[in-house]
């Protein structure tokens, strides 16, 4: 089992300290690859369920890039909040056509924030 091959087109890297913003949705990035990312967020009743087509990624003060083309791949409930405040969800997003500058920024983000060195 330890020798299992990655079935995804692009290897995923768990990351720390990354935040994504999509319209009114802000989430903590769980993992990222050159093909896309997944993030955790809390959904509230008044939130729109329509996913945004562009996002912004923040890595503290060290890194920021916007107008990131994204396509929603999945959006599932991870945990239901007990106090009625919302539900914790995990959303998977695929990157659209990235320009060379965005690929360089993405590579820098993965290198700086990946938990695997």
Word description of this protein:
Strands 2-3-4-7-6-5 form a 6-stranded antiparallel barrel. The chain is mainly beta. 12% of the residues lie in helices and 47% in strands. The chain has one helix at residues 100-113, and strands at residues 13-14, 19-22, 25-32, 36-43, 54-59, 63-80, 87-95. The model is unreliable at 1-6 (pLDDT under 50). The protein has a single domain (14-41, 53-113), classed as Thrombin, subunit H (Beta Barrel), CATH 2.40.10.220. It is globular and about 40 Å long. It is built from 1 helix and 7 strands; from the N terminus they run E-E-E-E-E-E-E-H.
What's the average pLDDT?
Answer: 81
The percentage helix is 10-25%
Number of separate helices: 1
CATH architecture: Beta Barrel
Query: What's the CATH topology name?
Result: Thrombin, subunit H
**Main sheet strand line-up:** 2-3-4-7-6-5
Give the helices and strands as they follow along the chain: EEEEEEEH
The total beta strand count reads 7
Break the fold down into its secondary structure elements and pairings.
Layout: E1 13-14, E2 19-22, E3 25-32, E4 36-43, E5 54-59, E6 63-80, E7 87-95, H1 100-113
Short description:
With 117 residues, this protein is mostly beta strands.
Features:
single chain, 117 residues, mainly beta, Thrombin, subunit H, 6-stranded antiparallel beta barrel, disordered N terminus
């Amino acid at each position: 089992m330890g020798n299992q091959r990655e079935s995804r087109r692009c290897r995923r890297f768990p990351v720390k300290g990354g935040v994504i913003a999509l319209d009114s949705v802000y989430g903590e990035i769980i993992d990222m690859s050159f093909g896309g990312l997944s993030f955790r967020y809390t959904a509230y009743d008044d939130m729109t369920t329509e996913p945004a087509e562009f996002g912004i990624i923040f890595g503290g003060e060290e890194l920021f890039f916007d107008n990131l083309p994204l396509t929603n791949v999945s959006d599932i409930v991870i945990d239901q909040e007990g106090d009625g405040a919302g539900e914790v969800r995990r959303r998977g997003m695929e990157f659209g056509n990235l320009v060379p500058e965005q690929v360089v920024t993405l590579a820098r983000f993965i290198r700086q924030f990946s938990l695997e060195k």
